[in-house]
Design goal:
By secondary structure, the chain is of the alpha+beta class. It has twelve helices and four strands. The longest helix is centred in the N-terminal third of the chain and has 25 residues.
């Protein structure tokens, strides 16, 4: 079998659409299904092959800092696919590269807004630097007397992917029930598997799902 990332991505989108449709009522109601149930477990999609470099970094930020947010990759909304969507909160994140067509993006955003989604577009360059690295650079340039450079770095902070995810997390988390320490925890699959939420969906999404769904997904090849 030959691996072609563009082909893989287009085929993965088709598989994921079937999995997302099966889970849509849960996803949109906030009874979120862990993303690995749907992507790896049901659709058989390997996330490492699905993302470009900036998208992979964005996904890392979401999984690390987006605790209590439930984003799903390559999510279908109408006839469009978006990089990441939180169906219950109605939030879309798109990672823009230099190849993006501004006119097409504007038209797509109108369709997504009509569907009730809030769209956040992040330039790929703002996914490249870790927040800790940027803060260290600001401190170093300030100490070196390079205040103009430090000011520019500070002005770019709100556009940083980690900062955006942390802000979304804080806006959408019931802080009266969640400690700051809990919000800072990294989301690991090993922790998810132990959760009551995982156990609740284990039957529905693994043991009891329709045979027809598995057959439909298996009929969509991921490799040439």
């Amino acid at each position: 079998m030959q691996f072609d990332q563009n082909y893989y991505r287009s085929q993965a989108q088709k598989r994921l659409r079937l999995a997302y449709e099966y889970a849509r009522s849960d996803l949109e109601s906030g009874n979120s299904v862990e993303v690995y149930h749907l992507c790896a477990g049901i659709a058989g999609v390997e996330l490492r092959y699905l993302f470009s470099g900036p998208e992979s970094k964005m996904w890392q930020d979401i999984r690390t800092w987006g605790r209590y947010l439930h984003f799903y990759p390559e999510y279908p909304i109408g006839d469009d696919y978006v990089d990441f969507a939180e169906p219950h909160k109605k939030i879309v994140i798109e990672v823009d590269s230099g190849l993006h067509d501004a006119a097409k993006d504007t038209a797509k955003d109108k369709r997504l807004k009509k569907a009730g989604y809030r769209i956040i577009r992040i330039n790929k360059k703002y996914t490249e630097k870790d927040l800790e690295h940027i803060l260290g650079a600001i401190e170093a340039t300030t100490q070196a007397g390079k205040h103009e450079i430090a000011h520019r770095l500070k002005s770019d902070l709100p556009k940083n992917s980690e900062v955006i995810i942390k802000r979304l997390r804080n806006e959408n988390t019931p802080t009266e029930r969640v400690s700051k320490e809990d919000l800072r925890k990294t989301v690991y699959l090993s922790d998810v598997i132990k959760s009551d939420e995982f156990k609740a969906y284990d039957n529905k999404y693994f043991k009891m799902r329709p045979k027809e769904l598995d057959e439909a997904i298996a009929s969509i090849p991921l490799y040439k």
